[in-house]
Amino acid sequence: MNRHILRSHIVPLGAACIMCALLPQCGGLTQEDFEQVNVDGFEAEDQLIDHNDYAYSMEYFKADGADDGYLYVGTCNNMGGLIGFYAQVLMNGGDILDAPIRPPEIRRYRPDLGPTEWETVFDYRDVEDESSFKTIGFRFMTILEAADANKDAPPARFLYAATQGEDSVLWLSKTGNYGEWEHVFTFDQLGGSIRWIEQLDGRIYLAVAYDSFGEAPPPGEIWVSDNGLDFRPIMQNGFGDPNNRGVQALIAYQGWIYAGTKNDIDGFDIWKLRPVAPGSDEHEYVRVVSGGGPSAHNENAGMPIIFQDKLYFGTQLYIAGFNPSSGNAFEGCDIIRINEDDSWETVVGPRSISGYGSGFNHFTNSYLWWMEEHDGWLYASTFDQGTLLSSLLANLEGVFAFLQKPQDKSTIETVSRLLNMFFDVEDYYRLTHAGGDIFKSPDGVKWYPVTMDGMGNPRNYGWRTMKSCPDGYLYVGSTNTTTGTEIWRGKAPEPDKNAARLLQQLN
Predict the structure, then answer these.
(1) Residue range 355-384, pLDDT digits in tens
(2) Residue 5 backbone phi and psi in degrees, to 5
(3) Which whole number is the average pLDDT over 454-472?
(4) What is the reported pTM?
(5) Which of 30, 386, 421, 507 is the most interior residue, by most CB within 10 Å?
(6) Which residues contact 153 (CB under 8 A, 6 or more apart)?
(7) Cis peptide before 5 (omega within 30 of 0)
(8) How many angstroms separate the CA atoms of 213 and 210, rounded?
(9) Higher confidence at residue 434 or residue 402?
């Protein structure tokens, strides 16, 4: 080979190796590696009517015997309208059943048809009438092996999808195709929601949480099925604590099911459970973490993942970082990890092993919304309430009226006018790094930012879901109540391109 050609290949690669040795964050994805692969809200006309605000759930599914697999996204609709409605109910009263509910859908990505093409495979308009919508989103999707409804057929792999709404309904599909979904189970307690689905030793477990405020809701529950079709409760008392008003997440680890709870009084618990004997409905229960872990203000433990043989949980402070029931507000999320012996340590938060405080040092990161492993790196995404706080600042008079009900409004009106004279939302977004964050880690201890501004759009105030797919891409789905959810995908460049990029950054 010509030595000049050889040198042109070796020098960039050598420089990249040197830089990787000097820069620990070299590796994994950067914001430059991502591209948007949908039209905002999927379709302009559908977005205008149904407001596809959230990528609420995400799963890659290849049906048995199929040639191709697809990425599926379940939406949550009109969340912006619902937040505004419930705020008005809290201030002025009203009937929560009058909420402006829009029907959700499931879409799957079809890059073979075009770079931003998504086809609808499930539309809740086919289930509920225009005059009586009561379902707002597909909250969770996963793939499980279960019995076939055709009793003569062997067990098969199914795509499961659980809804949130007045009822929480569990659906499954053997193909993922439009019109080929079957109703499995309905949890019909008002305000109850199937939050998570997990499988251990062939049994399928459902986590149930209650999302209501005000009057204390029932404690969280766990239901189980031996065949994936018929479910029954095994725990309905919040692990003996009525303040555990929800089971937020489940994950199988070390032969147990680990469960994170919602508790806005004492802070979350994490329990582990397993049958006392194969096939038994009687389970043994062990509490692993209590009191919200690093802080009693950590109300929810969710979004679990196993990474490098250790179990990680993230925390959340409801709703949108301000809980009117508990008074907890304006605190960042934490991450803890549980070791094989059930000892645990704080990864992000007070006295953390990473050095990052709560919210990755930003109190506005009030939710740890998802964690996903991709190409050997752990990715963590947040909900950044900084975007929503801009609306509070721009409407300060109404905020004070809600919080304080003052007798003299003249001072508030003066402050509001002065603030609005100098308040510019775009400047605010830049100064506060508004927009959902994504961080990455090679080992669960050292963390580096991927994006801190919603991929350049601060109105993407959170990254609700992520999925590492066989095509080599990491897909992430946003929450955006302004223009609709955005789906982005990231893939590391080839080594020579990566080297060139790093050299350019140094020059």
Answers:
(1) 999 999 999 999 999 999 999 999 999 999
(2) -65, -40
(3) 96
(4) 0.88
(5) 386
(6) none
(7) no
(8) 9
(9) 434
Alpha-carbon distance of 17 to 29, in angstroms, equals 17
Are the C-beta atoms of residues 257 and 283 closer than 8 Å to each other?
no
CA atoms within 13 A on the CB side of 391: 12
The token pair that represents 44 in the structure block? 């302009």
pLDDT exceeds 50 at position 169: yes
Q: How far apart are CA 348 and CA 362, in angstroms?
A: 11
CA-CA distance, 247 to 285, in Å (whole number)? 14
Query: What are the residues whose beta carbons fall under 8 Å from the beta carbon of 387, sequence distance 6 or more?
Result: 429, 434, 435, 454, 458, 459, 461
How far is the C-alpha of 380 from the C-alpha of 356, rounded, in Å? 13
pLDDT tens track for 244-288: 999 999 999 999 999 999 999 999 999 999 999 999 999 999 999
Strands 168-173 and 182-187, bridge-based pairing = antiparallel
Q: Which stretch of DSSP H or E encloses residue 19? A: helix 3-22
- The answer to whether the beta carbons of residues 26 and 495 sit under 8 Å apart is no
The rounded distance, in Å, linking the Cα atoms of 77 and 47 is 9
**Which stretch of DSSP H or E encloses residue 465?**
strand 462-468
Identity of the residue numbered 121: V
Contact predicate 493/500, CB 8 Å: no
- Say which amino acid occupies 64: D
The SS3 of residue 163 is strand
At what angle are helices 79-92 and 396-404 packed, to 10 degrees?
40
Token pair, residue 151, equals: 């009793």
Task: With cut-offs at 50, 70 and 90, classify the pLDDT of residue 428.
Answer: low
Can you give the length of the chain in residues?
Answer: 507
Distance between CA atoms of 487 and 466, rounded to whole angstroms?
A: 10
7-30 pLDDT, tens digit each:
444 444 444 444 443 445 569 999
d(CA 121, CA 423): 44
What is the pLDDT averaged over residues 468-487? Answer: 97
